[in-house]
Amino acid sequence: MKALVTGGLGFIGSNFVRYYLDEHRDAQIINLDALKYGSDPENVKSMQGDERYSFVKGDITDYDLVSRLVRDVDTVVNFAAETHVDRSISDPTSFLESNVMGVFTMLEALRKSNPDVRLVQISTDEVYGDTLKGSFTESDPLKPSSPYSASKAASDVFVLAYARTYGLNAMITRCTNNYGPSQFPEKLIPKTILRTLMHLKIPVYGTGKNVRDWIYVRDHCKAIEMVMDSGDPGEIYNISSGDEMTNLEVVGKILGCMDKDETEIEFVEDRPGHDLRYSLNSSKIRAELGWRPEHDFKEGIEETVKWYLENEDWWRPLADDRVLHPTPWKLEW
Questions:
Q1: Set 148, 179, 216, 278: catalytic member
Q2: Which of 109, 143, 276, 311 is the most buried (most CB within 10 A)?
């Protein structure tokens, strides 16, 4: 199998590249990445010299480049996206360009150059909006709240339309919040770990009662692998662990793991349009493809904290005032 992975220097993409090549000795992966702020070549340093892996610097909005690359692969896994909600509030334009026009460019390239390629579009639970009760299924309507989630919802609709209208072999995964090694420091869990290590207060938006489902990144990678192998064209697969916690509980568990207490927390002004609770029903992928998460939050967070403790050379250059600012949406908004 030969796959094109887009955005493979980012957090989830790089974890997937390493996971897939570890699990499939005969696989080949081309990694297309634009080397934007969330990309880091160090994330795939272990792949250097591996003849099964190659890197191409480029953007998925580059039609000629994408058309050339998809002609020679069996599968495309599209991680390439702007992903941070706070950044989307301060600069929505880049999210429209990357997340909507990038996916449109990919779909057009596949339609015209190699329509038999299997496309897995990596989406997010945020496209459904929030809910106080129950969990969203794949058939629920989309109600995005932020420019980020709106851009992902738009790209999802394009993927489904191309699958139906042009018969593209495309499917979508929507996953809950990921965490694990090499996550960019502006996200909640690494930011909490790193600010604790740097003896700084931990900023928590509003009351800290916003609820998210947390999944260890390697469990997400396994789910994507199963969709690649056995998913049906035109289908959506929700991916969730069932580990739902408030942001305050997450921060508290990290502090406890690091022998600190909640006096380190500092409540800050809430961001605009902050969804209260995300929750996904993942019974479809569990029943149809047999996927199950292998890590509970306690195990996963201990492994994550350990990784950051052992990899200061990776995170220290990224831990500047801009990344660790408690309310980054206010910088330009």
A1: 148
A2: 109
